[in-house]
Amino acid sequence: MATSPPSAAPTAAIDIRALTKRFGGVAAVDDLSFSVATGEVFGLVGPNGAGKTTTIQMLLGLTTPTSGAIRVLGMGMPERRFAILQRVNFSSAYISLPSNLTVRQNLRVFAGLYGVRRPHSRIDELLALFEIEGSAEKVTGALSSGQLTRVNLCKAFLNDPEVLFLDEPTASLDPDIADKVRSALQKRQREKGLTIVYTSHNMREVEALCDRVLFLSHGRAVAQGTPAEVIAHARRSSLEDVFIDIARGRDSGVESHDGVEEAP
Amino acid sequence: MISRIGALLLRYLYLYRRSAARMMAVLFWPVMDLLVWGFLTSYLERFAAPPAVTFLLGAVIFWDVFYSAQQAITLSITEDIWAKNILNVFVAPVRTWELLVATSLIGVIRATVSAGALAVLARVFYGFPLFSVGLPLIPFYFSLLLFGWAMGMFTMALVLRFGSAAEALIWGIPFLIQPLSAVFYPVSVLPAWLQTIARALPSTWVFEGMREALATGRVGVRTLLFAVLLNGIYLAAGAAFFGWMLGRVREKGYLARLGMD
Questions:
Q1: How buried is residue A128: exposed, middle or buried, by Cβ count under 10 Å (0-12/13-18/19+)?
Q2: What is the rounded CA–CA span in Å between residue A208 and residue B112?
Q3: Contacting residues of A for B94, CB less than 8 Å apart
Q4: What is the pTM of this model?
Q5: Is B13 on the interface with A (CB under 8 A)?
Q6: Beta carbons within 8 Å of A105's beta carbon, 6+ residues apart
Q7: What is the DSSP letter of A130?
Q8: What is the pLDDT of residues A45-72, one digit of tens each?
Q9: What interface predicted TM-score (ipTM) does this complex get?
Q10: Distance from CA of residue B207 to its chain's centroid?
Q11: Would an 8 Å CB–CB cutoff place B251 in contact with chain A?
């Protein structure tokens, strides 16, 4: 059942219409439309090369769309890039912070970039939230991957963002640290009513964290809904099974079952 | 705005403070350069007219002003690419001009520290009276800073577009410009066709003017005007090229690739 994209709710934190990005003749993102409500945790999932990262890059103004419209917090991207970037933040397992600066120095620099008032107390508060107070004076390059991930998340929370883009934030973490990170994220998200766009290849994590998910394949949306809806309509037992079906090009039914709010 | 420029400055200053390699680039290599040229000039003094010898030391110090300004701008961005921090900077609410101002200010600081140290050492070791020439040289100092910024913006744009493949240009571009800028000799010694190219560079007018100022204690107004005019053109072109290239980099998705590869 292919349906038209729903019109954006008045409280939509993110609204994307007919977004397309072509690199040469290849469409990395192809006519994508979706909305994310304020306070929602939205999973953007799919196999490698599906278009998740390109979509997030366009949402952050790092990559210019070929066509289509992006609105974040009611403002057009990239026209209002500066205003949007003041109210959002980003963290990825694949980027880092200068390794020869201490954790506190790195966070102080970004506090300045985001115009954070009383940066010292803010930094201390975030270090405590992610349980890495003891690493504040350590050189960032000496941190373990788990500590570095949490420092990256501290950076991402510095400006108290309304929308947070998290690109595989728990990749390469051991289960214990990953669980702590998820708990801290959930705590913060509930306290602040934060909107999160979350990408991950860990489908159990996506099921646990996300209110809704959007599956991408070859740049196109193939299914979206709550995790339970997507699983039920694909007649599978978990999101991981749905993921494998999509990655292997099997017809799991995710594109044609009633009840699942599909992207066009 | 001040907070963001201040934060970027803080980031670059931390970098210098905590990196032996960067500190060596500011002081060690320029001092080594000065010592080599200083002893050479001491030797040449036995044969050459003293003003020619003075020009060489002045050229070493002034060349370092241009080199430091260009390097500071380009390396500030390149360090963020090496540290995989570039995306953090570009997803922060930083305007392009704020980034350019911050990197340019780092260029001023680095060039001033480096040239100041060289001037003191040149005085101590070789009796070279740069400070006694004083005011006439200041316009040329600023002129070289401006040209360093312009070339820094060109180089930075190429690094953003071509990534590590363009990193050799960070160090290569100054040495491409050096022989054309008549740094250590008058422009008149170049072949006629090369003189035309040389006169299109503000640095050529600066070094011609510096030699005149060292010899006479006066600034050649015509020389300075040409340097200022050309700097205006190069700065505008550098900024426009950087802005255009950043747009292309965003369009092609290179920025994200640069930050994550």
A1: exposed
A2: 56
A3: 113
A4: 0.85
A5: no
A6: B14
A7: T
A8: 999 889 999 999 999 999 999 999 999 9
A9: 0.86
A10: 14
A11: yes
